[in-house]
Amino acid sequence: MIFATNNQNKLKELQDIFKEYTIKSLKDYNINVDIEETGSSFYENALIKAKAIYDLTKIPTIADDSGLIFEELVDYPGIYTKRIENDAEKEGLTRNEFLIKIGKTLKNKNIKAICNLVYYDGKNIISATGIMSGTITDKEYPGNGFGFDSIFKLSDGRIVSSLSSDEKNKLSHRYQASVNLKKKLDDNKINGN
């Protein structure tokens, strides 16, 4: 099975859950493509990527799309989370610094990290979603993890970047989506080979 990513952190998270599956990244297959995400939802973007990689390789594929949502701003940045890096760069900020700046303007600091995973094997389309809720911090807290981990505060006050990999893997949006997807694949007796 291919996980349509070159992000080794994401790959490791998925491999930790799908232990009895062999999951490789695009890099393992020397695939270097830029797939345009033209969908209007996390699910649609993940499906676009899964189908594109499957069509290229004919190997069952899992793809994800994920992002951060400010509750007060409804679905923003949502599916545009990765793309706001351009806006951040214009201001000389990293993406996380830019998100903190937005958070400081809001009364409601609640955020959600959402991950949608889609499995596609040319015939079956199986998807799963995971959501992690919390609040945005007012500064970065370096530590473990990647992505939003350093600006994401859980309801118990812990910053995600302060968690061990095992602790994070029991809470993260990608973990939840992965567990849900694995259960659906197992229930449908799909082994991904």
Notes on the structure:
- There is one protein chain.
- The chain is of the alpha/beta class and 193 residues long.
- The chain has one domain: Alpha-Beta Complex (Maf protein).
- The chain contains six helices and six strands.
- It has helices at 8-17, 42-57, 85-90, 95-104, 165-169, 173-187, and strands at 2-3, 24-25, 61-70, 110-120, 125-136, 152-153.
- The chain has a six-stranded mixed sheet with strand order 2-1-3-4-5-6.
- Helix 1 (8-17) crosses helix 6 (173-187).
- The longest helix has 16 residues, at 42-57.
Layout of strands and helices, then pairs:
Blueprint: E1 2-3, H1 8-17, E2 24-25, H2 42-57, E3 61-70, H3 85-90, H4 95-104, E4 110-120, E5 125-136, E6 152-153, H5 165-169, H6 173-187
Parallel strand pairs: 1-2, 1-3
Antiparallel strand pairs: 3-4, 4-5, 5-6
Helix pairs in contact: 1-6
Descriptors:
Maf protein; 193 residues; single chain; alpha/beta; 6 helices
Quick description:
By secondary structure, the chain is of the alpha/beta class.
How much of the residues is beta strand, in percent?
15-25%
- In the CATH hierarchy, what is the architecture at level 2? Alpha-Beta Complex
Termini distance?
A: 6 Å
How many domains is the backbone divided into? 1
Order of helices and strands: EHEHEHHEEEHH
Helix proportion range: 25-40%
Question: Using DSSP, what is the number of strands?
Answer: 6
pLDDT < 50 runs, ≥5 residues: none
Mean pLDDT: 92
Quote the CATH topology: Maf protein
Largest sheet: 6 strands, mixed
Radius of gyration: 17 Å
Query: What is the class in the CATH system?
Result: Alpha Beta
Q: Taking strands numbered 1, 2, ... along the chain, how are they ordered across the largest sheet?
A: 2-1-3-4-5-6
Structural class: alpha/beta
Overall shape: globular
Please count the helical segments.
6
